[in-house]
Amino acid sequence: MTDLILTYSVHLVLVLLLQIRVQADSSLDNSVKQLLSTSRYNKDRKPDSFSYVNVQVDIYDMAKTEAKNAEFTLELYLRMWWKDARLQYSNYSSLGNVSKLEIPEVNTAQIWQPDLYFLTDRKPEIHDRSIANRIIYIYRNGSIVYSERTSLTLRSSLDLTFYPYDQQMCLVELQSFAYTNDSLILNWHDSNPVKISGAKMAEYLISVGEYGHGDKPPLEQIGIYSTLRASIMLKRTGHAHFYQLYGPSFAVVFVSWLALFLDEKKVSPRLTVHTGCVIALTTQWIGIYFLLPAVSYIRAIDIWMITHLLLVVFAFLANILSLMARRDDRKNEIDKRKDSGGCEENFLKH
User: Fold this and answer.
1) CATH of the domain spanning 45-237
2) What is the mean pLDDT of residues 117-140?
3) Given this structure, which CATH class describes domain 240-329?
4) What are the pLDDT digits (tens) for 237-266?
């Protein structure tokens, strides 16, 4: 009987706690709805006549690189901080113990947001599964934190002079689309506004270069826009190219010169080896050109391939010269035999 009473009491307490929790959540939802009600809050109007927005970019992955198109795709978190005094809730009794409100993605459209965009982004994309990956936090004093997960495809002005030991710079620029610097100013957040959190690739070492802010007038007749700039440095390691490029090309040159030590009588195998080496290097060079964009200057890899191709051609010419010299020696030997044979006949006649 005691166990039954105890079990009933526990169930009753759990039901009461659940009911209190449901009532609290319901009260919280009603307060949020009242806070964001269109009768008191206009999401299409800026909070103040002049606003500051702090921005942070956290890069967590480098999805892919396309050297042919000079494109690099980054996965990142974009975070923004601003203040909207209209969303203060310190006078709401139902929210007295709540330090911040979490606004899910389905309700973020009810809140005014800075219309930032990346000037250097070629394929803007917000990550979404069933809903987009974004969230907003509202604090008691009206401070707002916005966070979203997005992809950024940057185009770099590639300098392949020292390829495959080159270093590229990708410029990241953020700007408001509609608000000039008379009404909205962008600033980087804290002293470390651009972070790289675990973004790694086998071919590149990723680091943050210089960052700052300034003004950029895309349309001078409209106004000047506050702009944030940061550079992402991509340093190619070149280790993979040692096995895929340097090793094979060196082996081809070695084989081409090794063929010179074949028997001089085996003319056809020697020519076949040298011809095959020239074709192998040429094919490898063409493959490199398919991977890289066309440029008007000489790259380090071009000097490497030209040097090795010339070494193979020199080996081929050395083979030809040795065969010609051997043919001349045979001809001279035959002529000497003929001359010695003629002298013997004349001696016999006398």
Assistant:
1) 2.70.170.10
2) 72
3) mainly alpha
4) 777 677 777 888 888 888 888 877 776 666
